[in-house]
Design goal:
This protein is mainly alpha-helical. It is built from eleven helices and two strands, in the order H-H-H-H-H-H-E-H-H-H-H-E-H. It has a two-stranded antiparallel sheet. Helix 4 runs antiparallel to helix 5, helix 7 packs antiparallel against helix 10 and helix 8 runs antiparallel to helix 9. The longest helix is centred in the N-terminal third of the chain and has 30 residues.
Length: about 325
């Protein structure tokens, strides 16, 4: 029996090296590429919510009656399942497109030079949320579209949008510690806006869970609350969010805040106005499917708008930028 060869530290490192490190050695994306990758992940996180809404609104929630297969005998939709099977299976396939977008964002963030671990971690956080939501989506099907699991499915998708929006914003910033652009009172007002919006979105899932769009043509259990009363409470919360946004804009003008927070607040106010119009029209027209779908898209845009307002309250310069003496010290070090 021959001698066992010595295993060096380099051999061990090479053995455990992951593919991302190999790609990072051979490819350096531009900052613009990293931003586009993060934006693609954010766009797909919104698309998957909208297409999930289309599944629900067309009554295709049980178009594929089981999971992870479409039927007990077929991985894909069959011709006998008709239109509803196609819609549900297409939405499932879009999960792979979402995974590809998130994967691209992870690879781009890992390959950027210098490597920013914060971006990579945000990318991986999206991946695990997608995996968790895929499992939860399967549970939704297996329990026959139980409204509470459907609500959790939507809220987890909102969490995905949150992480994706933060990552996209972080690609547009440096890696230094954040520096506030407004005072503490303004920050507290924005956090009140964030909290009210979270309640608004959560209550929106109750409106949907109690409403007439059960997601399938069969008998599906609903949340046992008055749909109209919950819808009215939802509208009150929406007005609170609008009022807070309007008040924030005036406060930012009064304290002569930078253009960033002002512009983001204005954008949010316009999104809220559009969402409000859609909400009232759908309420008084007995919830037509097209308007409900637009309202779901609007919900995503409102939440992204609120996050952009929150993130605009501080700036993150490049590491070392703006610190007195940094350039001189760097020059002396090179000398």
């Amino acid at each position: 029996m021959g001698a066992v060869p010595n295993v060096t530290r380099a051999d061990a490192v090479a053995l455990v090296r992951n593919p991302l490190a190999l790609i990072a050695e051979r490819w350096t994306p531009t900052p613009r590429t990293v931003r586009r990758a993060a934006l693609a992940a954010l766009v797909m996180s919104v698309v998957i919510v909208v297409t999930g809404g289309a599944v629900r609104l067309t009554g295709s929630g049980l178009g594929c009656p089981t999971w992870p297969k479409c039927t007990d005998d077929s991985l894909t939709a069959t011709s006998a399942m008709g239109f509803h099977g196609v819609i549900e299976f297409t939405n499932r396939m879009l999960t792979y497109v979402l995974c590809a977008a998130v994967g691209w964002a992870i690879i781009a963030a890992r390959s950027e030079k210098p490597w920013r671990r914060d971006l990579t971690r945000l990318g991986w956080a999206q991946f695990w949320i997608v995996m968790s939501n895929a499992v939860l989506g399967g549970i939704v099907v297996l329990v026959g579209l139980n409204p509470y699991t459907v609500a959790a499915h939507f809220l987890l998708s909102t969490a995905l949008i949150t992480v994706a929006a933060v990552m996209w914003q972080r690609t547009r910033e440096g890696s230094a510690a954040p520096r506030p652009l407004v005072g503490k009172a303004v920050q507290q007002l924005v956090w009140c806006l964030v909290a009210a919006t979270v309640l608004l979105i959560a209550l929106g899932t109750v409106v949907t869970g109690a409403g007439p769009h059960a997601g399938d043509s069969s008998e599906v259990d609903r949340m046992h609350v008055s749909w109209e009363n919950v819808a009215k409470l939802h509208a009150v919360l929406a007005w609170i969010v609008v009022t807070l946004t309007f008040a924030l804009w005036f406060v930012l003008k009064a304290v002569d805040a930078p253009r960033g927070p002002l512009d983001r607040t204005r954008d949010l106010f316009l999104i809220l106005l559009g969402q409000g119009v859609i909400g009232y029209v759908q309420y008084f027209t007995d919830l037509p499917e097209a308007l409900v779908g637009l309202h779901m898209l609007g919900s995503c845009l409102v939440w992204i708008g609120v996050l952009r307002v929150l993130l605009s309250l501080r700036e993150r310069p490049a590491q070392g930028a703006g610190l007195p003496g940094t350039a001189a010290e760097s020059a002396l070090t090179r000398a």
